[in-house]
Task: inverse folding
């Protein structure tokens, strides 16, 4: 994920999802609202994505937690992923943005992965996990 300064209605960043085979899908984040605690964005698949990528608009919440950023998506086709991202590398001096990377517990790869949902239990319900550092 790469973020940049933006006003409401402007592009605030991009997000690259990488699957376990190395295939990628890019999302464009547009700033929808700024609250006291988080950024609310609309995420839409980039025009040049592969056919398997979800192109539908969905809401993504970005919440600062210390030096990290919690990413929460309401994309049902993507499994409504949540992940805590950490900054990698230094942000350019003229910008407050920098590449972010996170790994989902239970995976071994880095670079802003988005989790697959947990398998359903015997009753067909999915487990609900908490994002570290996020209050209930």
Result:
């Amino acid at each position: 994920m790469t973020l940049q300064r933006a006003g409401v209605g402007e592009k605030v960043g991009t997000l690259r999802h990488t699957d376990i085979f190395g295939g990628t899908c890019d999302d464009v984040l547009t700033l929808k609202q700024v609250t006291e605690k988080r950024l609310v964005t609309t995420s839409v698949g980039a025009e040049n994505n592969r056919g398997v990528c979800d192109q539908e608009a969905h809401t993504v919440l970005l919440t600062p937690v210390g030096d990290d950023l919690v990413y929460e998506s309401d994309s049902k086709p993507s499994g409504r992923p949540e992940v805590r991202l950490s900054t990698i590398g230094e942000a350019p001096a003229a910008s407050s943005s920098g590449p972010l990377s996170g790994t989902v517990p239970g995976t071994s790869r880095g670079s802003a992965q988005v989790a697959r949902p947990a398998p359903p239990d015997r009753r067909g319900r999915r487990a609900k996990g908490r994002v570290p550092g996020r209050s209930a």
Notes: The beta strands are 2-3, 11-18, 24-34, 39-45, 58-65, 68-73, 82-87, 100-101. The longest strand covers residues 24-34.
